[in-house]
């Protein structure tokens, strides 16, 4: 399996999560990832308190192709505050936060349905 070096273009389902990372596109990555319609990239966020609008900028950059953003908040569920939710809503994106395992499964279902979805996923041990 190849190592992920920063960005892989294309729309990929997630093959596995856990052990601090993710597997997708015949690659693996330790750490968090940001998945948009254009591809999967390293996301330098280790805990939910580090999620900012700046860290979600690639989602805003692709807002015309995204209806729904799933934020995987780590091992626990966290409330997505209005400071994050409102600017995304103004861009036409509905946001839902859930534990990362549930977020990854939901993302895969929506990608399988060819829905316009993005995911910001915090890695869990």
Automatic annotation (TrEMBL):
Highest taxon listed in the record's lineage: Bacteria
InterPro entries in the cross-refs: MTH938-like_sf (IPR036748), NDUFAF3/AAMDC (IPR007523)
PANTHER family noted in UniProt: NADH DEHYDROGENASE [UBIQUINONE] 1 ALPHA SUBCOMPLEX ASSEMBLY FACTOR 3, NUCLEAR PROTEIN E3-3
Entry protein name: Mth938-like domain-containing protein
Source organism per UniProt: Bosea minatitlanensis
